[in-house]
Write a structure and sequence with these properties.
Blueprint lengths: L1 H6 L6 H18 L6 E13 L2 E12 L4 E3 L1 H6 L7 H13 L3 H12 L5 H19 L15 E12 L19 E15 L5 E3 L5 E5 L3 H14 L7 E6 L3 H10 L4 E4 L1 H16 L7 H12 L4 H14 L3 H12 L7 H6 L7 H15 L8 H15 L3 H13 L10
Parallel strand pairs: 4-8, 8-9
Antiparallel strand pairs: 1-2, 2-3, 4-5, 5-6, 5-7
Helix pairs in contact: 4-5, 4-6, 4-15, 5-6, 6-15, 7-8, 9-10, 9-12, 11-12, 14-15
């Protein structure tokens, strides 16, 4: 309603907005069928804030004595979020998730739209609706919903990054500090994208508008099935080839085996180079060794020619001669465990991406830029809810989510089926 009014050639006054909302509320109340146990208690007033200002709305109130629960049918059907109209609630959630802080969201709303909503209220609306946004991310894929893109190459990627948490959210969790205490909790980010063609040089090209994201603070065992559902929604079942792009973490490897058995697994090439540096440091004794950079480039060239086994053998021989075999073997473990997933020459010939730049960038922009700012300490629901909005926004799915949200609100008015 408000969006249509805003698109009109005239600027409506609060009186016009109030009249339209009130007229619709009266129709809703007139047609409402109370649920068993509900009793009408009369009319009550609510000061509603919308994109154009505030107005007073009169609507019926029902109370269920058995459940000790009240209900406003007009509020549910109109999609009100507390005292905010659905259009303003959507804008508040967008600003609260998009800006670096709730304070900046308050300031931006005031500067751009002369909309007065305090930072505390922005946070409350984000958390109120964000819980549903997180549930929406976890929903099961429906057959009618799944895309039929028939992408030649279908990519799934995942990574984890730490988000600073409040002390009560870290009780009993081991960390990397000297006293083994934890300062953060793992946030998993997953993404799905497709590839339909290559460039003139034969390099794979990502379909830019095909990338969708989802996030979770759940354990990897719960995140994996959630990511699989997203892949199914995107049409994984009809893809020519599924590729799982991850780093060499054991948890992500297990997730791949459990949830994406049909996929070709590729360990990110740039993570492999980082670990090659650890191997060279173990063999040469220091990163300051004059041959360190040259040898690292040698590793890169050899890896791109499916030479991971060759490099392992050469390193073992050299380390044994220098009496550094134990340390080198430990560093080589990353490559020994991932030989099949490091055949980069073969992967390149097939036209696959070998770098996880998409998910790495997502961790920085979707998670880092909002949840890892100086002085921030989150609760688990607080981080999950705001990241759900950021993923939905980055996936261009705001319209779909808010349609779902409005339907969920309106469904609260459905009468209960009577017992036979």
């Amino acid at each position: 309603m408000e969006v249509l009014l805003r698109a009109a050639v005239f600027k409506p006054s609060n009186a016009v907005v109030a009249y339209l909302f009130q007229r619709r509320a009266d129709r809703i109340d007139a047609g409402y069928q109370p649920k068993p146990g509900e009793a009408r208690k009369g009319r009550e007033s609510l000061v509603v804030q919308c994109l154009f200002g505030t107005f007073t709305l009169e609507r019926d109130y029902y109370y269920h004595a058995g459940k000790e629960q009240g209900h406003y049918p007009a509020d549910a059907a109109l999609g009100l979020e507390g005292a905010y109209s659905p259009a303003l609630a959507r804008l508040i959630c967008l600003e609260g998730a998009d800006e670096a802080s709730y304070q900046k969201a308050e300031q931006h709303l005031l500067e751009t739209g002369a909309i007065h909503v305090s930072a505390r209220q922005v946070q409350r609306v984000v958390q109120r609706v964000g819980a549903e946004a997180q549930k929406w991310q976890k929903r099961q894929a429906e057959p009618s919903e799944c895309a039929r893109s028939h992408a030649p190459v279908f990519y799934v990627s995942a990574d984890g990054t730490g988000a600073p948490m409040r002390p009560e959210e870290l009780q009993g969790r081991a960390g990397k500090a000297a006293d083994q205490s934890a300062k953060s909790r793992q946030v998993y980010l997953g993404c799905v994208f497709t590839q339909h063609k290559k460039d003139e040089e034969g390099h794979p090209m990502r379909e830019l508008d095909s990338t969708t994201y989802l996030s979770s603070l759940d354990a990897i065992g719960e995140f994996g099935p959630m990511l699989r559902q997203e892949a199914l929604r995107r049409g994984m079942a009809t893809a020519g080839q599924v590729v799982l792009l991850i780093d060499g973490a054991e948890g992500l490897e297990k997730m791949g085996g459990d949830c994406f058995k049909e996929a070709v697994q590729i360990v990110d090439f740039y993570h492999a180079l980082d670990h090659a540096g650890e191997v060279l440091e173990a063999v040469l004794g220091s990163k300051e060794h004059p041959d360190y950079r040259r040898r690292q480039r040698q590793w890169a060239k050899c890896l791109l020619k499916d030479g991971v086994q060759k490099m392992i053998a050469q390193t073992r021989k050299e380390a044994k001669a220098k009496r550094r075999a134990k340390r080198a073997e430990k560093a080589l473990g990353y490559f020994i465990n991932n030989i099949a997933r490091m055949q980069y020459g073969t992967f390149r010939k097939k036209g696959y991406f070998i770098g996880s730049g998409v998910i790495e960038a997502g961790c920085k922009t979707v998670i880092g830029s909002r949840c890892k700012q100086s002085g921030m300490f989150w609760s688990v629901p607080g981080a999950e809810n705001i990241l759900a909005f950021r993923c939905i926004h980055a996936s261009r799915r705001l319209d779909a989510f808010w349609k779902y949200r409005l339907n969920q609100q309106a469904a609260r008015n459905d009468p209960l089926a009577l017992s036979a």
